[in-house]
Amino acid sequence: MDEDPRANGESNDHSNPSKKPKISSSLSLITQLQIQQEFAHHQDGVARINNGSFGSCPASILAAQRRWQLQFLRQPDSFFFNYLQKSILHSRTIIKNLINAHHVEEVSLVDNATTAAAIVLQHIGWGFAEGQFHKGDAVVMLHCAFQAVKKSIQAYVTRAGGSVIQVELPFPVRSKDQIIAEFQRALVIGKANGRKVRLAIIDHITSMPSLIIPVRELVCICREEGVDQVFVDAAHAVGSVHVDVQEIGADFYVSNLHKWFFCPPSVAFLYCRKSPLSLNLHHPVVSHEYGNGLAVESSWIGTRDYSSQLVVPEVLDFVNRFEGGIDGISKRNHDAVVDMGEMLAKAWGTVLGSPPDMCPSMAMVGLPASLGISSDDDALKIRTHLRDHFQVEVPIHHQAPKDSKVGARNGNNCITAYARISHQVYNKVDDYIKFREAINQLVHDGFTCKVLSQK
Ligand SMILES: Cc1ncc(COP(=O)(O)O)c(C=O)c1O
């Protein structure tokens, strides 16, 4: 058995992994051909312009993951006693430097953003159960918060006596000031009748419709308005926008690493700013380490496969093979997705759902009104139709224009739906052309969603 963890890409010195992604002298820049080889396991012929939902993992990282799995299986006891904790700490240290956290204790590795939300919301739920919060005290969240997070609020907070205030976000949106104004309005409601806002949940990048939220400004407003704690749901952030948790200033910040940072499914980090309160946070799966701090609790939640957490050093090497490391990747993805979005909007006579600077590595592109997408159900059906008949994988968002407002227009009609396109290193212009032509074909054939409803 190879018990030297360096066989899996560890360096000798774990104390100070590179703070900013750098090209190390032993790594050469990746070529286009190598990128293709890294993603050769993607199904042939599919225009996969939906990195946002599940991310993607290169072949070399899958191979590294397999090596970690085998290292465990070869001699589990030795791996458990000698390497597992040390290696998880190494991954946490890399993430700590990547996001500019103060202490490695502030960084826990968990399965995904859903688990992180459960940790934070369970903590708030205990605030109600143990009488620190009063019945009716509020949690403020964006109305387009991720559905799983909304359910978690229902399970942990509403059930314990908390109330929920939703911030309505305008869409299409023309500036971040519109979002800031809506957020301030919601806080006023949250604090009405002497209630306290115990938690604000702010997405860094909303899922649907997808937008970069001015998170730093909103956290500042929360501090000024006396909101107890702030949780940033940044499931899409690392690898897609630059993240500096000290600059953002939230109490809790979660990002998946399997969406835009090339880790295998599934791994996320939860940053908890060091404070006396953070000692009360616990992993919902309780194991031997209960009470030893969230990061340590999370690093052993029973026997399971920890390999997706262990490949973080190899992922750092992978992203450093690209010019500018992870920041270079995200900048190029942003530029490309905006170019592709504008190309599609021009072809269809529609618009983007936000200004380019509010697009991460995803963009919302208005779809032709003639497709007749008039409900969430229609949006799901046309998505399935695009997959089954055109081999295009792209999520579709239905957006009913508000009664009193005139929505964005396509010819004489309001745009009622937007496609959320993603760009990742494996994407080609042809993927977006394939999508453009699929929609053009549907429009040309006089297709409307009514046809699908009749099936
Ligand atoms: C904003 C947001 N929060 C939470 C999640 C949940 O992520 P996961 O399924 O990895 O837990 C997602 C997933 O897309 C998301 O977009």
UniProtKB/TrEMBL annotation:
Superkingdom of the source species: Eukaryota
Chain positions covered by the region annotation Disordered: 1-23
Composition skew (Basic and acidic residues), residue ranges: 1-13
The UniProt record lists the keyword Transcription: no
Residue ranges constituting the Aminotransferase class V domain according to the UniProt record: 87-277
Keyword field contains rRNA processing: no
Keywords: Pyridoxal phosphate
Entry protein name: L-cysteine desulfhydrase
